[in-house]
Amino acid sequence: AQSVTQLGSHVSVSEGALVLLRCNYSSSVPPYLFWYVQYPNQGLQLLLKYTSAATLVKGINGFEAEFKKSETSFHLTKPSAHMSDAAEYFCAVSDQRGNTPLVFGKGTRLSVIA
Amino acid sequence: DGGITQSPKYLFRKEGQNVTLSCEQNLNHDAMYWYRQDPGQGLRLIYYSQIVNDFQKGDIAEGYSVSREKKESFPLTVTSAQKNPTAFYLCASKQGAGTGELFFGEGSRLTVL
Q1: Spatial distance between the Cα atoms of B13 and B9, rounded to a whole number of angstroms
Q2: What is the pLDDT of residues A16-62, one digit of tens each?
Q3: What is the DSSP secondary-structure string of B17-57?
Q4: Candidates B49, B56, B99, partner chain A, best to mutate (most A CBs within 10 A)
Q5: In chain A, which residues have their Cβ closer than 8 Å to the Cβ of B45?
Q6: Is A25 in CB contact (< 8 Å) with chain B?
């Protein structure tokens, strides 16, 4: 079985500060890992994905994430927060064959303070 | 433009009534999914279908039913057996197995009065 744990249901940062959203995964097989973003009353949009090609993955809107097998982590970072980054962020995992549905974490709401 | 269309966006129903949420995609994707979202609970899988005329239960299938008669359509029925149906429902699709991205619709918010 696969699962993800997102540490912190709510993170608040100042505009221009570093954004760090934490995700730890559990998987008995090599995983694929994803970060999605959701704005209020909308669907989810893919930010980035790890599919074993490179451990440091760059995504849209200046976000990136690093896959660390030894720590079973896939934390999402952005050097400088912008007001438009305020949203809910979800980490998700699937197996490397992509046959199993994505399993999502409970989400982290990011607030950006001016 | 290709994408996933969910309707209605907002729906109100009385207790004891069944309601069907529509999900249509024109991405030619093989696999389609229904997730339920509740505050602080993340997304939980209700049903999914990887091929026409076949579907599998997810983690919280009780009180829900689906059909997959056409590749582009995957409607979800919330039955009166679902004890707590008020939620935000998200439909998604994916091009088969592999590393393909999961594409989401805009969601349907169901409120039971």
Answers
A1: 13
A2: 999 999 999 998 888 899 999 999 889 999 999 998 778 899 999 99
A3: --EEEEEEE-S--SEEEEEEEETTTEEEEEEEEEETTEEEE
A4: B99
A5: 101, 103
A6: no
